[in-house]
Write a structure and sequence with these properties.
The protein is an alpha+beta fold. The protein has helices at 2-15, 57-62, 120-128, and strands at 41-48, 51-52, 70-73, 77-81, 86-93, 99-101, 105-106, 132-136, 139-145, 151-157. The chain has three helices and ten strands.
């Protein structure tokens, strides 16, 4: 009887050690771009030559563009919403967090209004010109070049 009690106690004790999968709000620490967790990353900041621009996610939401400038990652494609068009592009990753994003294909809806401080064409150009990615402070950062050579960092959060 004592052995049965010890076995049952051990079973209850060890069953409490079985964890559940962590939610997507936990810290992101991945070195594999295709397994970056989260269903939809939202652009929260744009830096040009190390300086933050006037891009403002809160103002974007207030002006009716809250679903704009998103990024989803799957095994071979990125996709999301520009402003207002949906887009997709193939990508490959290399050593040292390098990334090569192929030509962005998008729907061809005409925008009645453009969001303030970031044109959709520029966003697609920045995505397509990305050459490096990183995770910092639970944010996904894509490093890119503008058509004029300026260094661009797109910062996304979940």
């Amino acid at each position: 009887m004592k052995i049965l009690l010890i076995v049952l106690s051990a079973a209850v004790l060890f069953s409490g050690c079985v964890g559940t999968p962590a939610a997507s709000t936990t810290a992101v620490a991945s070195t594999d771009f295709s397994v970056i967790p989260g269903n939809e990353w939202k652009l929260t900041e744009v830096r040009i030559n190390g300086r933050s621009t006037d891009f403002n996610r809160s103002a974007l939401t207030q002006s009716g563009f809250g679903e704009s400038f998103t990024l989803n990652v799957s095994a071979e494609l990125i996709n999301g919403v520009g402003a207002p068009n949906r887009y997709t592009a193939p990508y490959t990753v290399g050593e040292d967090n390098s990334i090569n994003i192929g030509r962005v294909a998008s729907t061809l809806m005409a925008a009645l209004l453009e969001p303030p401080n970031l044109r959709e064409h520029d966003y697609f150009t920045y995505i397509q010109n990305s050459y490096k990615w990183d995770i910092r402070n639970n944010n996904l950062e894509l490093f890119s070049k503008a058509e004029n050579g300026n260094e661009i960092i797109l910062i996304f959060s979940l």
